[in-house]
Amino acid sequence: MHEFTALDGALLIDKPAGPTSHDVVDKIRRKFGIKKVGHCGTLDPNATGLLIIVLGRGTKLSERLMSDDKVYEGTIKFGEATDSYDCEGQITETKPVPPLTLEQLNEACAPFIGDIMQTPPMVSAIKKDGVPLYKLARKGVEVEREARLVHIYNFRFTEYQEHLGRFRLACTKGTYVRSVAHDLGKNLGCGAHLATLRRSVSGKFDVADALTLQTILDMSQSQLEKRVIPFLKLAGA
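RE: above sequence
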């Protein structure tokens, strides 16, 4: 059996808005010359927060780490629906927003808690006949998407002001928070889209323990090695 190296394990990164999850992987691979680098759960380019990066033999654990439950925080804007269900898309509908209180919003969250069948947005990386849906969406093609079972443990708004609500949501892997925002707006009759999103927790890991991407890229290899969660510790996580 081969000995594990200091670069077999995982890094916790606080992803900034802008780069894709793949961009983050690529930057780390290039900077440190590590052949095997992967991530555990895609974050949209506009989303921030916890991105678990696996290195070397740590990539063998990526499926397991990806299957962990997640916690997200963010904001939903009411009165505007978009084709991507988030702020990156084109506005497809604008409607007046009824007077809403925090209590009413949280009552509207109730149907989303528990097991739900969720239809992924067209602007997503899910593939249809080998082609990512977002590529079809760019061509103006819409295809039928199969609804998938997901579980939402908790969904609650903590603030609401001027058509913008701040929320916290805990869910199983594969849950599209964008779809939740879109469907909530539809249920309220005014439309809505996801304005901002931040992943704060994935399994036993918290964004509070993560470093920014730039901090990681500014490190030497020996500094990086001290930040890697070792494979054996990861395997027992």
